[in-house]
């Protein structure tokens, strides 16, 4: 999955995606609801909301593959898929950003989550994952989506709604997990097995 402002590193080896990279097209990232990306029963159903991406960096490899860094631009709604190219083409429209809602609670939770991983809010987490000074709560919502490794359907819900309360709830749940792991204490050596 990809969120607005986030990045997605890709190793491009399939011919259809090599063509897309060579054509230097912007593209969409959509979570598959049912099916697989390739092979029989491929992408039978897609979620209706995805993220438009642009190729930020492309490194051509000697054997024709590409190492790509794509950046998320904005969300879109998928209206339909059309054949015609080796890769899927879709009819989409751009979704407006959700209304800005006061997000001090979200920013506080995000700061705690990052601190639990030894990172300060606003520090450089990589080219994609930094919260610029004065960034609004929506950027924080997308950052939460990019950082958390929760179930894809929860991340999809966050992408579709842009809801700061959902982002806060996801962060709280992850912080609770991290806290409970810390309470386990040090591992004790196993007693020797009887002879």
Brief write-up:
The protein is α+β, with helices and mostly antiparallel strands and about 200 residues long. It is about 30% helix and about 25% strand. Strands 1, 2, 5, 6 and 7 form a 5-stranded antiparallel sheet that branches.
SS-derived structural category: alpha+beta
Q: Radius of gyration, rounded?
A: 20 Å
Please outline the major beta sheet: 5 strands, antiparallel
Uncertain runs: 130-134
SSE map:
Blueprint: E1 7-12, H1 15-22, E2 27-29, E3 32-34, E4 45-46, E5 49-60, E6 66-82, E7 89-94, H2 104-116, H3 137-147, H4 152-161, H5 164-182
Antiparallel strand pairs: 1-6, 2-5, 3-4, 5-6, 6-7
Report on this model:
The protein has 195 residues and is an alpha+beta fold. It folds into two domains: 7-94, Archaeosine Trna-guanine Transglycosylase, Chain: A, domain 4; 104-182, no CATH class. The protein has five helices and seven strands; from the N terminus they run βαββββββαααα. It has helices spanning 15-22, 104-116, 137-147, 152-161, 164-182, and strands spanning 7-12, 27-29, 32-34, 45-46, 49-60, 66-82, 89-94. Strands 1, 2, 5, 6 and 7 form a five-stranded antiparallel β-sheet that branches. A two-stranded antiparallel ribbon has the order 3-4. A hairpin with a 6-residue loop joins strand 6 (66-82) and strand 7. Mean pLDDT is 79; it is low at 130-134.
């Amino acid at each position: 999955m990809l969120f607005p402002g986030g990045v997605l590193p890709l190793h491009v080896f399939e011919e259809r995606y090599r063509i897309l990279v060579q054509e230097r097209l912007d593209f969409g990232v959509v979570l598959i609801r049912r099916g697989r990306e390739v092979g029989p029963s491929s992408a039978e159903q897609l979620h209706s909301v995805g993220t438009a991406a642009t190729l930020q960096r492309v490194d051509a490899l000697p054997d024709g593959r590409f190492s790509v860094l794509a950046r998320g631009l904005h969300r879109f709604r998928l209206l339909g898929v059309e054949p015609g190219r080796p890769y899927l083409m879709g009819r989409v429209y751009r979704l407006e950003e959700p209304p800005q809602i006061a997000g001090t609670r979200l920013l506080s939770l995000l700061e705690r989550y990052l601190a639990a991983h030894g990172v300060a809010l606003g520090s450089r987490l990589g080219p994609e994952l930094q919260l610029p000074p004065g960034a609004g709560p929506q950027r924080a919502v997308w950052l939460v989506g990019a950082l958390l490794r929760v179930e894809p359907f929860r991340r999809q819900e966050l992408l579709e709604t842009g809801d700061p309360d959902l982002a806060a709830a996801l962060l709280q749940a992850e912080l609770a997990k991290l806290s409970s792991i810390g309470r386990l204490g040090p591992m004790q050596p196993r007693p020797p097995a009887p002879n």
